[in-house]
Design goal:
The chain has about 270 residues and is mostly beta strands. Helices cover about 5% and strands about 40% of the residues. The chain has an eight-stranded antiparallel beta sheet, with no helix packed on it. Strands 4-3-11-12 form a four-stranded antiparallel beta sheet, with no helix packed on it. A hairpin with a 7-residue loop joins strand 5 and strand 6.
């Protein structure tokens, strides 16, 4: 009888943290200084966060660069009490690191990353690949698959895209995203913006906003000009937020999903 190693490896703490060892070699730098160099990191999930972060054995961290925080953010990070300022490369970064209160994670140090990048390190690497935003979740899967489905997208009754050659991107816990060839999208109805976002699974996205009168949030369309190798098939294709447009697939109108992006899009609309 087989067992699932991932299910076996995830552990919980009394504080509500989930964690598991990682076999990846992880390094973090500030300027030209390597602050973290670890072959034994652990992934930690905080109760209020949907994505993981790393914590490292103290011996894998340049502790000589850490100072007790002058203004610790006590109570954040699941009740953490010990915070550190980082002095490296001629720069002092307040509350750059902390230790979790869980006994299981005693002797480990975590660093700010995606929530407060101004308090974190400049670059992170897994093996020889630079990673962004947050560590990739080993329990999350992203698959991009060419399809022949008929996909039509409308905004306020106007058809803005129509294709029979989409790429469908399936991502754990999110709705299917439909990536469409540019020539099948009415880009004349949109304006490019200077907005960019990063994704640890796909890369850096560029955006367009709707030029019409309909009440839709800005930056409703995006593309990955240079996606990560795992999803190279979406390169240059365009996707819309299912949460804010009307999508019909093979003649069936899809319901607009409610996702973590829904609140973000609503805030954008109000501003």
């Amino acid at each position: 009888m087989s067992t699932l190693p991932n299910e076996r490896s995830v552990r919980s703490t009394a504080e509500g943290l989930l964690w598991e060892p990682s076999e990846r070699w992880v390094r973090g730098t500030k300027g030209d200084v390597t602050v973290v160099d670890s072959r034994h990191p652990v992934l930690v999930w905080e109760p209020e966060l949907p994505v993981p972060q790393y914590a490292f054995p103290r011996e894998d961290v340049r502790q000589d660069l850490l100072r007790p925080a002058k203004h610790p953010r006590t109570g954040t990070h699941t009740g953490s009490q010990i915070f550190y300022d980082l002095e490296a490369g001629g720069e002092l970064v307040e509350n750059a690191a902390w230790t979790f209160p869980a006994e299981d994670l005693a002797g480990h140090v975590a660093f700010e990353w995606f929530r407060h990048p101004d308090r974190g390190l400049d670059h992170w690497y897994e093996e020889e690949e630079e990673i962004f935003i947050h560590p990739r979740d080993p329990h999350k899967r992203v698959d991009a698959m060419p399809s022949s489905r008929h996909v039509r997208i409308e905004i306020d009754g106007t058809t803005v895209a129509d294709t029979r050659r989409p790429v469908l991107l399936f991502e754990t816990s999110l709705p299917t995203r439909y990536y469409l060839p540019r020539e099948d999208v009415r880009l004349d109805l949109f304006t490019p913006t200077d907005h960019h976002t990063g994704c640890p699974y796909k890369g850096t996205a560029s955006y367009w906003s709707w030029r019409g009168e309909a009440d839709v949030p800005p930056n409703i369309v995006w593309t990955y000009p240079d996606p990560l190798p795992a999803v190279h098939v979406v390169q240059g294709l365009l996707a819309f937020y299912n949460e804010a447009v009307d999508i019909t697939v093979d003649g069936e109108r899809l319901e607009r999903p409610v996702t973590p992006f829904s609140a973000m899009l609503s805030r954008r609309r109000r501003t």
